User: What shape does this take?
Amino acid sequence: MPLPVISIAQMREWERATWETGQTGVEVIRRVGWKIAQRVLQFTRADDAILILAGKGHNGDDARAAREFLAGRRVATLDVTAPENALPELERALAQKPELIIDGLFGIGLDRPLTDDWKKIILAVNQSAIPVLAVDVPSGLNADTGEPVSPGAAVEAAVTLTIGAPKTGLLAPNAGLFVGRLEVAADVGLIPCPHTSELNWTLPEDFQNYPPRRPAAGHKGTFGHLGIIAGSLGFHGAAVLATRGAQRAQPGLITLFTRESVYHVVAGQLQAAMVNLWTPDLKLPDSLSAILVGPGLAAPGLVEIMAQPIRRLWRDWLLPMVVDASGLDWLLTGPSPKNAIRIVTPHPGEAARLLNTSVQQVLSNRLQTVREISRRYGNCWVVLKGQHTLVGRNGGEIYVNPSGNPHLGQGGSGDVLAGYIAGLLAQKALHADAGKLIRFAVWQHGAAADALQANRANWVIEDLLGELGNAR
Assistant: This one.
């Protein structure tokens, strides 16, 4: 099940409830140490040097507990209890250039400004440019607000492995510099989380046995027919990428409708998908079970001929519809058919245009952005892309996606995602839980990027297509 995003106070209540069952802090710390070690082993190679920085609180205990499980690594531990005396020893340790630092200096209990000596410790860690794995929260960061308790004085982690559930501040707009990649050590011996939240963290386990096994007697008619309206002069690649992304979801049929100016170059790159011309008076086939509109519709002059037909589809078509990229600019506010599945996939700039606001305002309150876009556009599902992509709508829970990395910031990434979502949406058997379908698609897209990044540094979007859908 997804994990609620919780406050420091809620985390403390969760811990107290756990201790009341007879579970011990010693056992939980040992499990946390094992989780930390497993992540460190993934980060490093045999005989790599690891530096553990451990404070005097439980966060330091968690970091020290990892050492037991780091056989095959050269581990040094620096217990920092008196920062005024620790800086020279830290500088000597950093001069040895360890491959990774485990940050266990401060946990979520830090509630006071840091002294100058502590600031120097943190500055030395950050200036070393050595990757840091922060335990629970980057030292010096307030886990409720996402701001350093002392301005600028927080560890800048490559990865933060938070314990139990994500803390609210770790997802705050300004926290990314310090948090880096946020991961969760969920199963550490605590009782099931007693709290709920409107914001929830998706787990890979949420998709166990999903999508369901296809029936043995299934055929291409069983798995739907996706229509895609995409591509224009100078932007034909988006149509190709969206179509190939849809193919990775394996709908029964795909028909791409594209502009005459790019028909030949697009059709020449697609084999299994059918390619037809799009005209303003086009009648869509009755066999379609879903449609995607928008990728690559950015050539000048298209708004005059395409906006009205697409608006009519959004307003009147009864079947599922995904709108991405330029198509988002052509939508009108107001209701859509009752119970019809509608999905929009804006990045922050597109979200700002949908709400007639600024990108900064979108980024400062992403949850409210999802709610407001959904409210204005017929209670549609919203995929607000970016670090920790959000999935939700006007009512109900909103979900944070944990997968993906900055290397998804390449042209075509969004086209692939829109196609993949639409390819799943074309399959009627998956319509019962549209939210889960969308979350799965977003998670798979990010997980494909993570798998690529783990094996090569210079992958491109065409590689993403080859990996998409393989995560388990």
